[in-house]
Design brief:
homodimer, 408 residues, alpha+beta, Aspartate Aminotransferase, domain 2, 6-stranded mixed sheet, 4-stranded antiparallel sheet, 12% strand, disordered N terminus
Chain lengths: 408, 408
């Protein structure tokens, strides 16, 4: 996701019809991407009878709801297909390798620290009320020294948050609607959705070259999973502090998907075109629209960065990387071309000439394994399915056994 | 805060100058409210030398930064004055009765439940990853039955959040920039700031009557503090489900200011002008821009609503209400007219004909007690200071003793 300074980068429908019939209507999907244009899956949009206020619906949200952008319907579709499958096969052992949700327990060195902080909140000495919106300074300092040592990133460049997804939306609020977002294809759906919500809609533009002077938002949520020589942080690249923001998370390192803790680096060197520091506006949004991550979660984050915590996180990461290897080897041995899996625990399996949704459906029907159709991440994902490596080892092995039965 | 469907409701400066000198500039404050127009307190706006990207700054944030709206500078001002005071009197026992930050420990019945959930996260059985963005269903159900029994509010109308302030900003994103916000005066600064951030700027309009058909956003964060016959929830009023949203919080009931947990009620009966349910758009924002409150905080919220938890919360509330009574009695006995204090733990003391900032300064200088100038909450607060009743009992008593010495 990078940002330059004019407007419009996505698919806008020529006309979002304003409906005057206050009954359940079948809305036709509008769009070009397969995952929402499936004719047999028309969406039901609910308009209700009853008292109507005089407040107009936000047009940005109508556009999102209309589902003309690829990610919108994909996740719902997958969930709906899974639910239907469970109804059809109530006794099946369905294995979910769809969304990237962690499954392994949080290491005790980390939960002990959170429990200690929690008990402390019941004492006069250990109680604390509102913390700084930007996070507690010892945690900010620990993040800076653990992940950005020698990169010139300082503790006051670190903004602790309740997760990368939340920070991505806060960044959208910082930049507002008068910017153009360029988003890679395939991409994480929240990048696109949060852009549309802020009003950054326009035509889908393929192969557009952007001018220099953009701001790069770099999502490093999987940095600890990387196994090749690419930079773990964008700030390893000389000059990046003047052009980049980095967002990151404890979710996939320590199993914090439910605990909620992440951070964003906005270097003080990053300036708008008028010389105003971006960090000052981000700080303002953090203070106005957010009141800091939970102090208990922050105690957990601090424990993650102790020597024992780091070791425990590496073990968690290694476990999911082993899962990834098992999946990669399985599909490779079956003759598939496999992409990804090196720097993130997701495996992209190529089914040339086939529809992602058809492959997804066949795998679900015949193996009871939920994957994600690649086209759900953008047109570039068509012809692929994405297999998540988050899962208990037994489930990963069982899923791979079924893949072998299906494709051998 | 209520919303109708056109635009503009606040003070817009005639011109926000775009600065071309990339040096530290002294920016003149622009505005009509005393709390930002203090000539001796000119703000320093920093523009930096160095590489500038080509991304323009969000004009909404420039407007906010320019500080022409009353709340912007107030909190910073108070903090700055307090810091200067501490430098001047390093040995003084400064008592903070400014912002509403809780001071009393969280009852053990609640922290025990959070610690139990935390330890559970280290086990296979107790681990959970991403939870529903709207909150865990047992908590939603418990909130509905505890606070909205017999009011027709159901568990799926409840959206659990990381706090009321965060939900207020999410509501702004739902409504977008093409609505008019009408905000009471005096008001909680975040209502105004979050409106400006979304681009809802305009002239300050006094005594404007709004048409019917608005949506009311009702902040019930202090409902448990109420001691008169006014409704605790707006949904006690017949028909409110068709016109109102209610936001609420555990912060001031259980000391969760740092733990972060609140909720918002968006009844399914609330419709936009085209009949589309507001709850569906709010749900969309919650799922896209937020990933749910921390599961540990949610375990705490659930414990709050057990019989023991409710009793413990009532004790916390009673303690702060006793503080409130002590402050009210003190100022009343000194001959002041006192407002508030009945339905929230804040006491508004009237100093007719005096400037809020002058009174604030005199109290700080002579008693070492930090209050908040009423004008910081809007023009209607001029001539008042607001005294928060959040504090240890000893500090409240000591502050009142000093008030008596000053004003007797």
């Amino acid at each position: 996701m990078s940002i330059s300074s004019s407007s419009s980068a996505f698919l806008a429908p020529p006309h979002i019809s304003s409906r005057q019939e206050y009954v359940r209507l079948q809305a036709k999907s509008i769009g070009v991407c397969r995952c929402i244009a499936r004719p047999e899956e028309e969406k039901t949009v609910v308009y209700c009878k009853g008292y109507q206020t005089k407040v107009s619906r936000n047009a940005n949200l109508s556009k999102l709801q209309a589902g003309y952008l690829f990610p919108e319907v994909c996740i719902c579709h997958v969930a709906r297909k899974k639910a239907a499958h469970l109804l059809k096969y109530p006794d099946a052992h369905v294995i979910s390798l769809g969304i990237g949700d962690t499954t392994e327990p949080i290491p005790e060195v980390i939960t002990s620290a959170m429990a200690k902080r929690t008990y402390g909140l019941s004492t006069l000495e250990g109680y604390s009320g509102y913390g700084p919106g930007q996070g507690e300074m010892p945690l900010r300092a620990a993040i800076a020294s653990t992940f950005y040592r020698d990169l010139g990133i300082e503790e006051d460049d670190i903004f602790v948050s309740d997760g990368a997804k939340c920070d991505i939306s806060r960044l959208q609020v910082v930049f507002g609607s008068n910017v153009t977002m360029a988003i890679q294809d395939p991409s994480y759906p929240a990048y696109v959705d949060s852009s549309v919500i802020m009003g950054q809609t326009g035509k889908f533009q393929k192969d557009v070259e952007r001018k220099n002077g953009s701001i790069i938002v770099f999502d490093s949520a999987y940095a600890m999973y990387m196994s090749d020589d690419n930079p773990r942080s964008i700030f390893e690249i000389v000059g990046a502090k003047e052009v980049a923001i980095e967002t990151a998370s404890f979710s996939k390192y320590a199993g914090f998907t439910g605990v909620r803790l992440g951070w964003t680096v906005v270097p003080k060197e990053l300036l708008f075109s008028d010389g105003f520091p971006v960090a000052r506006d981000f700080n303002r949004i953090v203070c106005t629209c957010f009141n800091g991550a939970s102090n208990i979660s922050q105690a957990g984050g601090f424990a993650c960065l102790s020597p024992e915590g780091l070791q425990a996180m590496h073990q968690v990461v290694s476990f999911y990387k082993e899962n990834t290897d098992i999946i990669v080897k399985t599909f490779t041995s079956l003759g598939f071309n496999v992409y990804g899996g090196k720097n993130a625990p997701y495996v992209w399996v190529h089914f040339p000439g086939q529809s992602s949704w058809d492959v997804f459906g066949e795998i679900l029907e015949k193996t009871h394994v939920v994957t994600t159709p690649g086209s759900g991440f953008g047109p570039g994902g068509e012809g692929f399915i994405r297999v998540s490596a988050f899962g208990h080892r037994g489930n990963i092995l069982e899923a791979c056994k079924r893949f072998k039965q299906l494709y051998n």
